[in-house]
Design brief:
This protein is of the alpha+beta class and about 375 residues long. The protein is built from four helices and 25 strands. It has helices spanning about 5-40, 90-100, 215-220, 315-320; strands at about 55-60, 70, 75-80, 105-110, 115-120, 120, 135-145, 150-155, 165-170, 175-185, 190-200, 200-205, 230-235, 240-245, 250-255, 260-265, 270-275, 280-290, 290-300, 305-310, 330-340, 340-350, 360-365, 370-375, 380. The strands form six sheets. Strands 6-10-9-8-7 form a five-stranded mixed β-sheet, with no helix packed on it. It is globular and about 95 Å long. The N and C termini lie far apart (about 85 Å).
């Protein structure tokens, strides 16, 4: 006996209701999974033990904040200080006002580590206003033929409309001065973090946020969206060479120029790319760190990487909202490299935030470890452990 019209209608209704329930349960499962992953990755259940590679001390003669630095083969190191972006919150504004912080560049010499730092002179030009200089990532190109160093610095001028720039300077070692030459800007610069020069007028840079306004940036972070990229500028054109990255942060190039290392901080990993002749990039390795990497420094002798990290995510987020009120743990990793690939990781330093809060950059040179921070101290340590 064939089913009646009412029976068929009931079965269809039941089928639709079941489908809705299945979809709802599936969406709920995905949401719960993401929340659980977010809670774990935030570091709420993470605990570390404080340790140093040897005696450590605060570097003198520098204001609070040393977000990035770049070290030359001879040990001279250019340091950026005064990192600040629009929409960072009242806590950051108050921190800058209270400590009278400004955009500055410093020079540190690993061979004279106990001498502290020297501030580099910077003057305004028709193309550059030193009063709106808020330096972030730093990269240096060594022009060996001309015997000079070209210094590239990511700048957040905080102007309206918002426009990130990369400033180009020539270093005058006699006057300890950075002479402004040019600036680079464009639609490809969404929210620039770091820069890696490939020539006197060419470089890679990372965009670590797709959005600019506070609310969408917060959602971008919480959802851990992979929507940022790496861009190469060849003196004429901007070309996206790597994308699908969860907040691309630090970038560095191997000493032979064959590999590019990128730190997607929300991805908690380092990505290794082979650099092609046309400056395009081919992904070669994804090395998980299980901590938030910031900037990457390359050992000019061994080729190993040193990374300043944020091991407890929610604490560094609080620190970036209220730098004077909340400390963030600091962590330094040494990554062994062979044939471009990362083979192992070793933790050299962990501090709860008292000595150095919110570590960003690190490098070992001549048995000395230098560690920079977002808004806090610059620290140097003796290295008395095997590397």
């Amino acid at each position: 006996m064939s089913p009646s019209y009412c029976e068929r209608s009931c079965r269809i209704m039941l089928s639709k209701g079941t489908c809705v329930k299945i979809v709802a349960v599936s969406l709920l499962a995905v949401a719960v999974q993401h929340i659980a992953r977010l809670v774990v990755s935030s570091g709420i259940f993470t605990h570390h033990y404080k340790h140093f590679p040897g005696p450590c001390r605060k570097v003198e003669n520098i204001q609070l904040g040393s977000e990035d630095f770049y070290t030359l083969p001879d040990g001279l190191t250019f340091i950026s200080s005064g990192f600040r972006m629009q929409n960072m919150g009242r806590g950051v504004e108050e921190h800058f006002r209270k400590n009278k912080l400004e955009g500055r560049m410093y020079l540190f010499d690993f061979k004279k580590a106990d001498a502290g730092v020297k501030e580099l002179k910077i003057r305004s030009t028709d193309l550059f206003n030193v009063d709106t200089f808020h330096p972030h990532g730093v990269g240096v190109w060594e022009d060996k033929k001309a015997g000079r160093h070209v210094v590239f610095v990511v700048n957040h001028p905080l102007e309206e409309p918002v426009a990130d720039r990369i400033e180009k300077f020539i270093f005058d070692p006699n006057k300890l001065e950075l002479l402004h030459q040019a600036y680079y800007s464009g639609e490809a610069m969404k929210s620039v973090n770091d820069v890696q020069p490939t020539g006197e007028d060419s470089f890679y840079f990372t965009n670590y946020q797709y959005f600019r306004n506070r609310v969408p940036v917060t959602l971008e972070t919480l959802l851990q969206l992979r929507i940022t990229d790496v861009v190469h500028f060849d003196a004429n054109n901007y070309t996206v060479v790597a994308d699908d990255l969860a907040s691309a942060n630090g970038i560095a190039m191997s000493k032979d120029g064959q590999y590019i290392y990128v730190a997607p901080c929300l991805g908690q990993e380092i990505r290794v790319f082979r650099r092609n002749k046309d400056n395009s990039l081919t992904l070669q390795q994804i090395f998980p760190l299980y901590t938030i990497p910031d900037n990457i420094q390359v050992d000019h002798t061994t080729g190993d990487l040193y990374v300043g990290c944020h091991p407890i995510a929610y604490k560094v987020l609080l620190h970036m909202e209220e730098p004077s009120e909340h400390l963030a743990p600091s962590q330094v990793l040494q990554l062994r490299v062979k044939d471009g690939n990362i083979t192992s990781a070793q933790e050299l330093l962990y501090d709860h935030g008292e000595l150095i809060s919110g570590s960003t950059s690190a490098l070992v040179y001549n048995r000395k470890l230098l560690v920079g921070s977002i808004f806090h101290n610059l620290v140097t340590c003796d290295v008395n452990i095997p590397l």
